[in-house]
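Hi C.,

You asked whether I'd gotten around to modeling the 361-residue construct. I have! Everything is below, sequence then structure, no commentary in between.
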Amino acid sequence: MVMEPLFKPYMPANVLDDLNEILYSGKLAFGKWGNKFESELCTYLGTANAIVVNSYSSAINITLSVLNIHQDDEIIMSPMCCLQSSQPLAAKGIRIIWADIDPTTGTLCPESVKKKITKRTKAIFHNQHLGYVGYIDEINQIGKEFGIFIIDDCVDGMGEVYKGKKVGNCGSDATVMSFHAVRLPNAIEGGAISFKNEEHTLKAKIARDLGIERNLFRNENGEINEKYDVSTVGYGATLNEINSYIAYRQMENFDMLLGKQRRNAEVWVEKILTNNTECIPLKLVPDSEPIFWVFGMLTSKKDEIIKFFRDKGYYASGVHLNNNRYSVFKTMEELPGVSDFYSKFVGIPSGWWLNKIEFAN
């Protein structure tokens, strides 16, 4: 049986037409299309402070540098996340402090976060789990109360809405986003950062390009300026023109694709509640609009339900293994909300490619 996949890369029609021109233009580095995509992203999020980079890991690394978060600093986060979110922190030598989650939503529990704060805490990394919005106001308030940074982890949540605003413009100090192959939009590989503070944005633009201000780096003859000092750490993290163009073209259909996913989620709610599947749809945080990267359910019969949906032709999965059980993070702490959630969570496809959901018990 061919099953409907849990994830699937999207590619717009006729994208090869302009790609051929770009490939032979002699201009492949960040330029026209990178700037167009960055501008489109800012418009979509409703902020002037978003920048695009070449990967999600780069987005995290640059954010940490801009916010002055270093080795041995502590960051509080949910273990119910993708390794794309947690491994870059570990690679920097940052001490990850796991907080518990609300087992009905899959997102960070504000009360647990508060209990984990110490004098070494520099930030809260707020995962928006699988396209579902977390307790944004509550977590942001904790940041204000204790004077620590809030970084929204939007690894698979571009397009989420909270209280009428796009996540990426909801008051956190920074939001990191992924444009990996199975995300929307996908650049095949890419990422972005949205900051609250314009000064942080300007620093990030320099950091993504080897710590260089391009308008000052070369003199009037095009030679490297001997009087220009490179004074900050930087990364080779600009997004090339091919990836930028592919992502830019996807923004044309972005809201339409998310609309399909949200409609599919509505169908799933009706189907699972009326067909006695012994599943409960994942609870939504009030005033939030998920993008349903997957459709999430809770059940006391996880293995049976996964098999049940796969037999129906839908690739069901627990998706992520909670990261607090991996020895690389050196904090293998038992968290009751995480354990409860992992034992019950099942994700099924809700993507833009599902044109009809046929399902009966």
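If it helps when you're writing up: Residues 15-251 form a domain with the Aspartate Aminotransferase; domain 2 fold (CATH 3.40.640.10).

Thanks,
B.
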